[in-house]
Records
---
Amino acid sequence: NAGVTQTPKFQVLKTGQSMTLQCAQDMNHNSMYWYRQDPGMGLRLIYYSASEGTTDKGEVPNGYNVSRLNKREFSLRLESAAPSQTSVYFCASSWAKGSTNSPLHFGNGTRLTVT
Amino acid sequence: AQTVTQSQPEMSVQEAETVTLSCTYDTSESNYYLFWYKQPPSRQMILVIRQEAYKQQNATENRFSVNFQKAAKSFSLKISDSQLGDTAMYFCAFMKVGSEKLVFGKGTKLTVNP
């Protein structure tokens, strides 16, 4: 099993450019998440999707949009990239919300630099 | 809102020794879960150990154990017989029962020296 797969692994954008980060999981999980990790800040939730067809804002949603394309895939879009969005982005999934029996499984992250 | 505090930005330990990483949290909830995640240089986030707040017994996973003090809102991680592969960032995290949101601390960078 591949688990949670993110693409690309690295990306450099210029200010104002757009891009989509892709995430797919093969564990039949219901919930999917996007986090960003900044030095000294830990991980912060951007958006999440509790099930196919639903999405909700997390702690830091501004400047991002998401799409839960199907049960497997959850994409994160930056419409107009800003230097403040330079970060490492993690996708994660879990079978169900809020349970120790359903911990988050993370992808390997995407390092995004906006110049 | 819940907050998670890891007061030790960096720690080091000699191989085969024991080290304890600290974590405190602030919440008004009574039902919640606590987690420790490990992030090695490969960047992948790996679940180390988990604890349900309603359980008084401290969780253990091989060389990893926790000291959960609910009244003090403390959740420390003890690593016994430290190995070089334990070198990583360690994140403490909190989740309210039924919530989608995992709240992370800022992390502790642990280095295991040979």
---
Amino acid sequence: NAGVTQTPKFRVLKTGQSMTLLCAQDMNHEYMYWYRQDPGMGLRLIHYSVGEGTTAKGEVPDGYNVSRLKKQNFLLGLESAAPSQTSVYFCASRPTSASSYEQYFGPGTRLTVT
Amino acid sequence: EDQVTQSPEALRLQEGESSSLNCSYTVSGLRGLFWYRQDPGKGPEFLFTLYSAGEEKEKERLKATLTKKESFLHITAPKPEDSATYLCAVLFQKLVFGTGTRLLVSP
């Protein structure tokens, strides 16, 4: 099993450009998450999904959109990138079990917006 | 506001020198506390889940404990390969991550 994979690993954007980050998991997990990690701050939740076709806002959703058309994929979109969105983005997933909250993370995407 | 604080921010140990990392939280209604390890340029890797005060979990040289207001990650006789950033996360109504402790173990 590959676990959680993310594409691309690195990207540089100019202000105003758009892009989509792809997350894929092969563990048949229902829950998927997008986080951003910035120096000196804990991981912050951008959006999440509790199943195929569902999405919900997290702590810092502004400037991002998401889609979950297939259970195994969770896409994060930036419509008009801003320098404040320079960060490392992590996708995570977890099973639905009520007794298991641990999340499994992908390797991350390092995004720089100039 | 619910907060999670990890200390110290950074810790340098000699190989074999045992120590502890701290994760304290201000919250009511704790539903779980998680420890993760993060290597440079990689995503966090799950280590432990603790659900109630008094609970302990062990894995190799790591032992996690939980009280009503904090958790400790004890590292016994660390090796250089234990060097990483250790994150804790606390589940209340949402999952809140601390900023991590950067551990460097020198040979």
